[in-house]
Design a protein that fits this description.
546 residues; alpha+beta; Serine Threonine Protein Phosphatase 5, Tetratricopeptide repeat; Alpha-Beta Plaits; Rossmann fold; 4 domains; 4-stranded antiparallel β-sheet; 19% strand
Length: 546
């Protein structure tokens, strides 16, 4: 075969993904860089699987069209550092194949080179001895040899052989790999993909599990014992999408500099509609706040790598545990803020989805949370009116569980629903009980105006504080405490006996305590007033009256 068309390239890609899926556990056990979080194989496979879904039914013969579809899907499905780098490589390959119907060896070599170049540019501090090195050395070799290649088989045989050679050299380039007695996990993942592609090219069939294992010599499993948990410099793996806002400037160079000051393992890559961000940091909240100034966020994932390291040290014991039987009921709650998350967890919520105002999770995010909840029936608490539709779509997609969406529009309503839940009731009675509890809660919030506007003939100036009750504007003023007090007084006019003030991450503690004293004095002894840390963004205070 002298050139590669779109249909054959698609099948090779799918075969490479299959090979990765078969070998992802082996790759996970190699992982040791930058910390032993043990998920490189899984992240690369999850990234590839999104693209496989996007192209598996394609009958397109044009390699430029197929490669573009693969690149777009990979970016949106990218998981972890390794997944993002993989998506960047294929994005560069797609750019190199733009306008090409069938690629010969020279064209393909140039495209692979562009993919490597794009990956290196996106990584703030490229480290040699990683999958970047494996990709670069094999690509550089192809540029030299492609003019003499007799066809595609020769091209991919050389690609695989050079990648294998480069992979074996990674421990000599990166001391942490030599210390752990392993090769680089991401580099191994890349080699696995290349070998799967070559398999299809030679045999015309998808790779099978038995064949996959025959292609690898015995490998070492990473020795994690030399890494102390407290030695991990940046503890939180943080990744998300910034959804581009035409009214905002992403200022990516400035953003990369900001990330570089508070973290490492930084990858920032932009597409037409989104910016994919990956960083390891000790301050994920600061990263999220800074990113919000550049657009809305989605697919937010924050993982504690120190906890992962501790778990990895006892992974053998964990792997022998028997699967946990399903329980009758589970609850998925959606909220933003460390304090609110803790409240829902303490009340018995099984899974928390990060989201709320300005950060609405997708149907897929909620579905993943539902699937992670080990129960026959799952109650979803959206806790925001803009999330209810996504939650309802989840109910249509979940196949093996009964989904009940309690249409909570606010966090106080969600907490009320939790109080109405009773594990001894039937699903129907629980829906009724939770909805009844929701109806007994009044909700309010205090935020700020981000621009000048007019609302029902009321002039609002940028920076003024807004008091909202059940979505209606109660008061506007430049004094946050006065506005909040006025809101609470209005919410108590209908006979409330308990008021809870959930204060956000931007509400000063001293101000909150002063607010508490003012409210207790004005409301008297008949109404109990409490403050609780919510840690929520956007809203200084969320008020519950019942």
């Amino acid at each position: 075969m002298l050139s590669l068309d779109g249909n054959y390239f698609k099948n090779m890609f799918v075969c490479g993904a299959n090979n990765l899926n078969i070998n992802k556990t082996m790759i996970n056990r190699l992982n040791v860089f930058p910390v032993p979080d043990g998920d490189t194989g899984s992240n690369m496979w999850l990234t590839m699987s999104v693209a496989v879904t996007a192209v598996k039914n394609s009958t397109e013969d044009d390699i430029s069209v197929v490669s573009e579809k693969i690149a777009g899907a990979l970016l949106r499905g990218a998981r972890g550092n390794s997944g993002v780098i993989l998506s960047l490589m294929f994005r560069g390959i797609a750019q190199g194949l733009k306008g090409v119907k069938a690629a010969d060896a020279v064209t393909l070599a140039a495209a692979f080179g562009l993919g490597v170049e794009m990956a290196y540019k996106a990584v703030m501090k490229p480290t040699e001895g990683t999958m970047l090195t494996v990709a670069r050395l094999s690509s550089e070799h192809l540029k030299k040899t492609a003019p003499e290649c007799e066809g595609m088989e020769s091209f991919f045989e050389q690609l695989t052989a050079k990648a294998d050679e480069a992979l074996k050299a990674t421990p000599d380039m990166l001391p942490v790999l030599k210390q752990a007695n392993v090769v680089d996990a991401g580099g191994m993942g890349l080699l696995v993909i290349y070998r799967g592609m070559l398999h299809y090219l030679i045999n015309g069939t998808m790779i099978e599990a038995a064949e996959a294992n025959d292609t690898y010599e015995e490998i070492n499993e990473a020795d994690f014992s030399f890494v102390e948990t407290e030695d991990i410099k940046f503890g939180y793996c943080t990744e998300f999408f910034i959804n581009k806002d035409k009214n905002k400037d992403e200022r990516l160079p400035e953003f990369k500099t900001f990330l570089n000051d508070i973290g490492d393992s930084i990858v920032v890559v932009a597409d037409d509609d989104i910016v994919k961000v990956h960083v390891h940091t000790n301050n994920p909240g600061r990263v999220i706040e800074e990113a919000l100034t550049r657009g809305t966020l989605s697919k937010i994932k924050i993982e504690n790598m120190r906890e992962q390291h501790t778990q990895q040290l006892v992974i053998s014991a964990a792997e022998t545990k028997l699967p946990t039987p399903r329980k009758p009921y589970g609850i998925v709650a959606i909220c933003a803020g460390e304090g609110l998350r803790g409240i829902f967890e303490d009340m018995g919520a099984d899974t928390i989805v990060d989201g709320g105002q300005t950060m609405n999770p997708s149907t897929d995010d909620i579905l993943n949370a539902v699937n992670a909840t080990n129960s026959e029936v799952v109650f979803i608490l959206p806790n925001n009116k803009n999330i209810i539709m996504s939650a309802k779509q989840t109910a249509e997609l979940a196949r093996d569980k009964r989904i009940e969406v309690i249409e909570t529009k606010t966090v106080p309503q969600g907490i009320g629903a939790m109080l109405g839940f009773d594990a001894d009731l039937t699903p129907e009675d629980n829906v009724a009980s939770m909805n009844e509890s929701v109806s007994m809660v009044s909700s309010g919030s205090v935020t700020y105006a981000d621009r000048d506007s007019v609302y029902f003939e009321k002039e609002i100036k940028k920076g003024e504080f807004l008091a909202l009750s059940e979505g209606n504007l109660v008061d506007v003023s430049p004094n946050r405490v006065e506005t909040t007090v006025k809101l609470i007084m209005s919410m108590c006019e209908n006979g409330a006996g308990l008021v809870t003030i959930y204060y956000g991450k931007d509400a000063p503690r001293e101000e909150t305590e002063s607010l508490l004293e003012i409210c207790r004095e004005r409301l008297g002894e008949d109404i109990e007033v409490n403050i609780v840390y919510g840690g929520q963004p956007v809203y200084y205070y969320i008020i519950s009256a019942e």
